[in-house]
Amino acid sequence: MAISLDSLFSLRGKVALVTGGSRGIGEMIATGLVAAGAKVYIAARKKAECDAAIARLGPNATALSADLGTQAGARALAEEIAAREPRLHVLVNNAGANWGAPLREFPESGWDKVVDLNLKAVFDLTRFLLPQLEAAARPGDPARVINVGSIDGIQVPLLETYAYSASKAAVHHMSAVLAKKLAPAITVNAIAPGPFESKMMHETLEKFGEGIKKSCPMKRIGEPEDMAGVAVYLASRAGAYVTGAVIPVDGGISTTR
């Protein structure tokens, strides 16, 4: 049987939404989806950052303002997508937050902010967009939900980021639960990134970057192509039979602790 690499990884004619797509890992994923031919919506709170990202992503990308920290914000974004697109082929739930504090001082407000955005918003946006995802599904070519977790949801983190690591572990498990529920029309998988250059990781890499590189089996920090590649794989025909998986993209760090 002949296999065309172009058809295997092409996203031409597909529509995708990437939350938190204006910077960091979200922009890396959006860049990969655009390069593969998809029409991509990115959603973020700050208009200036969205506009700057669109300038980099090009004409096949559109920015939407959204605050996913509340259920109302998730519903509003879903309604905006539904008004623009009858079908959504790829949903990337990437928007997230972190909070670090000593155990005895960890604030309820920090816990709520992180869990609401990292976990509850993923659940809410996915279910609010089910009509568009189901409409996009075809036999052998399901719609895709890609949830961005973290290796801190696989292993015990070095820093005191209790809500973050708990929320990401929950995202991994929820992805498996949703994968079983939504098959065969929709696949649901999680990506678990290790260290990549982003606003969230900047301070950590400034302080510990060289040590992280030394302890990483691949001896480097993740690059944009690493994240774009796994996202395109999961979103394209190449990943159509993969669902319920958690894929570490961490240079092997999660194997060392």
Structure description:
The chain has nine helices and seven strands. The chain has a seven-stranded parallel beta sheet, sandwiched between helices. By secondary structure, the protein is of the alpha/beta class. The longest helix has 21 residues, at 108-128. It has one domain (10-249): NAD(P)-binding Rossmann-like Domain (Rossmann fold). Helix 2 (24-35) packs across helix 9 and helix 5 (108-128) runs parallel beside helix 7 (162-182). It starts with a helix and ends in an 8-residue tail after the last strand.
SSE arrangement:
Layout: H1 5-9, E1 15-19, H2 24-35, E2 39-44, H3 47-57, E3 61-65, H4 71-84, E4 90-93, H5 108-128, H6 130-136, E5 143-148, H7 162-182, E6 186-193, H8 202-215, H9 224-235, E7 246-249
Helix pairs in contact: 2-9, 4-5, 5-7
Summarize the structure.
This protein has helices at residues 5-9, 24-35, 47-57, 71-84, 108-128, 130-136, 162-182, 202-215, 224-235, and strands at 15-19, 39-44, 61-65, 90-93, 143-148, 186-193, 246-249.
- Helix amount, in percent? 40-55%
Total beta-strand segments: 7
CATH architecture: 3-Layer(aba) Sandwich
Report strand order across the widest sheet: 3-2-1-4-5-6-7
CATH superfamily: NAD(P)-binding Rossmann-like Domain
Radius of gyration: 17 Å
Could you name the ranges where pLDDT drops below 50 across 5 or more consecutive residues?
none
List SSEs in N-to-C order. Answer: HEHEHEHEHHEHEHHE
Measure the end-to-end span. 42 Å
Alpha-beta classification: alpha/beta
- Our count of domains comes out at 1
Number of helices: 9
CATH class group = Alpha Beta
State which percent range the strand residues make up: 5-15%
Mean of residue pLDDT values: 94
General form: globular
Give the biggest beta sheet.
7 strands, parallel
CATH topology: Rossmann fold
